[in-house]
Amino acid sequence: MTAAIALHRAGWRVAGFERAAALPATGTALGIWPAALRALERIGVDARSVGRPQPSGALLRPDGRPLAEIDMDALTARVGEPVRLINRPTLLRLLFAALPAGTVRLDRPVTDLGALRAEYDLVVGADGVHSAVRAAAFGPRYRARPVGSVAWRGSVPLRLPSGAEVWGSGTKFGYTPQQDGRTNFYAVTRAPAGWRPADDLAELTRLFGSWAEPVPTIVAGIDPAGLLRHEIVDLRPPLPSYVAGSVVLLGDAAHAMTPDLGQGGCQAIVDAVTLADCLGTGDDIAAGLAGYERLRRRRTQRIVRMSRLAGRLGQVRRLVWLRNAALRLAIRSGPPAAG
C-alpha cells in the first residue's frame, strides 16, 4: 500500500491486488524507525499520530537479572526521533485510507504474472516472504529457507510500565507495552525445520513458565485464538537483482529477513518510497528501476545478514556467558543504520 500511495502521488495509475479478503482487525505492534516515519511523511501519511514512542527497556536473564539496558532516550538522540510502536491493523487502515477508493482490490490473489506483465507497464511484487511474483520471475532457487527457530507472537490484556527481552539458552522472550493497556509479546526457540508442537500453549508454558515475572503471567494470559506461530525464515541465496524486466520486488519479496533487528516492515516502507522517487512519472522506467536497484539492494541485503547474525546469537546453547558478553558489547555500540 505504501508503494501504491507513492506511485499514485507521482502520477501513475495504480491497481493493487491483495489476496486477503479484508484488512486485519487484530495484530501485534510494529516498531517504526525514523527513516520509515520520514518516508511515510513524504507521501502524506502521518504515522506518528497513531503511534507511541517506544519506551526504554532491558535485556534480562531468565531469572530476572539484567544483561544490559536499552536506553531509548540515547537512541532517540542518535537517530533524531523516537522509534514509534504502531499497531499493524492501525497502520494498514491508515495506508488504505490514503488511497483513492478501489485502488487496492481485496480478495484478489495473483495467479498469473504473465497476464499482469501484458496488461501493465510495471508489476511491483510486494507479496511477502513466500512471494509468488519472485518465484515466477527468478525461479525456485531464490526462496525463503528456515533458519532453525520458531516464533510465537501475540498480545495479552496486561498493562506493564516497560518492556524487556529475556535471553535464555536457545530461547528468548520479549514484551512491549502497547497504548491500549495491552502488552505485545514474542517468544522464540530453536527448532528443526517443519517442527510443530502438539499444543502451543503447553509448549510456551514448558519453555517459559518458570522464568521471572512478568513472563509467566504473560504466558498465562494468552488467548489461543490470537496466538500466531511461524517458522522463522529468510531469503537465501540473496537475489542477484530486484528487477526482472518490467517486474520489480520490494519488502519481504525482495529481502525476507529474520525479525531480530525489527527492520522488515521499515525496510519495505523505505523500498516503496524510494521506488516511486526513482521512477518519477515513468518517462524512463528502465533507468528508474536501475536507480532503485542501486540504492536498495546492497543496503537491504546487508541488513538481512546482520539480522541473521543477531538471530544466531539467540540460538546459542553453549558458552552462554560469552554470548551475553557479546550482547552487552553490541548494545553499547548501538544499532545498525536503519535507513
TrEMBL record:
GO molecular function: FAD binding; monooxygenase activity
InterPro entries per UniProt: FAD-bd, FAD-dep_Monooxygenase_BioMet, FAD/NAD-bd_sf
Transmembrane helix recorded as keyword: no
Pfam families: FAD_binding_3
Top-level taxonomic group: Bacteria
Keyword terms: Monooxygenase, Oxidoreductase
Location of the FAD-binding domain: 242-306
Record PANTHER family: MONOOXYGENASE (PTHR13789), PUTATIVE (AFU_ORTHOLOGUE AFUA_6G14510)-RELATED (PTHR13789:SF309)
Name of the protein in question: Monooxygenase
